[in-house]
Amino acid sequence: MATLARFIAEKYKDSIQSGIGKSMTKPSVLILGAGLMQQPAILSAKELGFRAVVVDANPNAESVPLADEFKEIDLKAKDEILNFAEELTENSNLKGIFTAGTDFSASVSYAGEKLGFSCHSYEAALNATIKPRMRKCFERCDVPSPKYFSLSGAEITEKNVLSAVEKLSFPCVVKPADNMGARGCRMIRSMDEAWRSVKIAAGNSRTSTVILEEYMEGPEFSIDAIVYNGTLTITGFADRHIFYKPYFIETGHTMPSKIDEKMRLELISAFADGVMALGLTCGAAKADIKYTEKGPQIGEIAARLSGGYMSGWTYPYSSGINLTAQALLVAAGKEPSGILGGRIPLKTGNKNFEIFDCPSKNVSAERAWISIPGKVKSLHLPEKESPVQNVFPRPVKEGGNVDFPRNNVQKCGNVITKSDSYEKAVSAAEKAVSAAFLRLEPNVPATDFFLSGKFLPDEKGFPPSAFSSFEKIEGLDISGKIPAGFSVLKDAENFPELKKLLELPEKDWNFLNALQTAEKFDSICPGHPALDRLVFWKSLFRGGLQGAIYISDSCADSENKV
């Protein structure tokens, strides 16, 4: 992706150069973060006529080449950010501070409030960043959210953890108090899982603080919004697709949601109550929210635009509005005319806000592809054919380690589509993901462990098998060898029970069924070595296409070493 950033930087070369000479007069905005998720903010700032001044702890972050000015600053270092913003105010006509897709909205508000910029208050941003504070605000204002316990530092003992878990009952959830991307988050299903899960969550917290919560059962949604002049405008409402317990891995989202309108309005009203409870008054807000048997329940609300490609990609594709640019205008003290001019009122009955909605014109779907544990040999990307708009591989290098994701930053890549129908957008996204393939190095212990069907003691059932029929393979009488170079599909025709399993409609995490997987194997590995039949089919049903090819490559590798 760094190459893409350099290409775009070259495209904007003239504006960058002109901005250097006019730094005393041309207005600037300070953007926190220089990763892919901040790319729309940097480009939008330029399109709006601002100098994009960017800070990040990583000087090699992929969007650094797009910045008019870059300074290496840790995004946690709020006083350093404030000092730099003060310099920019004096020397570079700074008009506002902004972030998207990071968990540093508090740093934005800390500096922005002190300098008199348009932003949420620092206290409100802290309320929306630190989960125990958030829950207390919700509790105080009767906003629907789960029962919880918070533990910090010396309070995190096995005795206290087990006591809290017992009061919540199973399943429950543990999260770091101050992190994003599902890092350190997981479901606790038994006492045996509790202590280790909490220790991992605490290790993912900057303050060694965790929050234990009731598990909320029900479909989950993402909401993006702009709070402006006492109004709340819904700028995105998407279905979230969360899988792979005990973890909460977002494999994608689809916008707009297919939810019933009555339920949608209930969720929006609950979200508005949460925004008011946190004290968010000026800028972006986003929510992860569920519709449970009790009605709406808020997972969390952040004082920023969403990450995960939603605000920067799927929303513009769906609505035709550059949401990032509109949020930047608010941060710079200007009117978000693109939103105000296209919104319609919503009758939610909410007493805290006048609520509006920006309707979607199209459907956009984002889907992720993932990998089984192992070491990367090669990566094959899908073609970007309409309605596919983007293919975003994660920075997975040959020889690097991959794993089945336990958080949202461990996925291997994402595709985004745009279409005039929900079905077309989703189908195209799934088709593109099914074409992505990460080939693994042969004879790697981590891959062998996974394909054997074993689990870590506190992760029973995780990672899941590609196909649930994996459990049935062991009982089949399919001993012997698949001859070298012989079609595995043709070989399976000799075993009626195996053939039945292959014809089941169930799809794996990359949207292939077992029959399609076998067909792809035959296409990719026509010259495979002789294969132990039981081992091969166990590997395919456990690890999908990756597992099948891995076994073939491992056999070939072993033969070559003899």
Overview of the molecule:
The protein is of the alpha+beta class. The protein folds into five domains: 2-117, Rossmann fold (3-Layer(aba) Sandwich); 147-214, ATP-grasp fold, A domain (Dna Ligase, domain 1, 2-Layer Sandwich), CATH 3.30.1490; 220-360, ATP-grasp fold, B domain (D-amino Acid Aminotransferase, Chain A, domain 1), CATH 3.30.470; 364-440, D-amino Acid Aminotransferase, Chain A, domain 1 (2-Layer Sandwich); 465-561, no CATH class. The protein contains 20 helices and 23 strands. Strands 9, 10, 11, 12, 13, 14, 15, 16, 18 and 20 form a ten-stranded mixed sheet that branches. A four-stranded parallel sheet has the order 3-2-1-4, sandwiched between helices. A four-stranded antiparallel sheet has the order 5-8-6-7, sandwiched between helices. It starts with a helix and ends with a helix. The model is unreliable at 1-9 and 11-23 (pLDDT under 50).
Please supply descriptive tags for the structure shown above.
562 residues, alpha+beta, Rossmann fold, Dna Ligase, domain 1, D-amino Acid Aminotransferase, Chain A, domain 1, 5 domains, 10-stranded mixed β-sheet, 4-stranded parallel β-sheet, 20 helices, 23 strands, 37% helix, disordered N terminus
Write the layout of secondary structure elements.
Layout: H1 2-11, H2 13-21, E1 28-32, H3 39-47, E2 51-56, E3 69-72, H4 78-91, E4 94-99, H5 105-114, H6 122-127, H7 131-140, E5 148-152, H8 158-168, E6 172-176, E7 186-188, H9 191-203, E8 209-214, E9 220-228, E10 231-243, E11 249-255, H10 261-278, E12 283-292, E13 295-302, H11 310-319, H12 323-331, H13 337-340, E14 344-345, E15 354-357, E16 363-369, E17 374-380, E18 388-393, E19 401-402, E20 413-419, H14 422-435, E21 437-440, H15 445-451, H16 470-473, E22 481-482, H17 488-492, H18 496-502, H19 514-524, E23 531-532, H20 533-561
Parallel strand pairs: 1-2, 1-4, 2-3, 10-15
Antiparallel strand pairs: 5-8, 6-7, 6-8, 9-10, 9-12, 10-11, 11-16, 12-13, 14-15, 16-20, 17-19, 17-21, 18-20, 22-23
Helix pairs in contact: 4-5, 8-9, 19-20
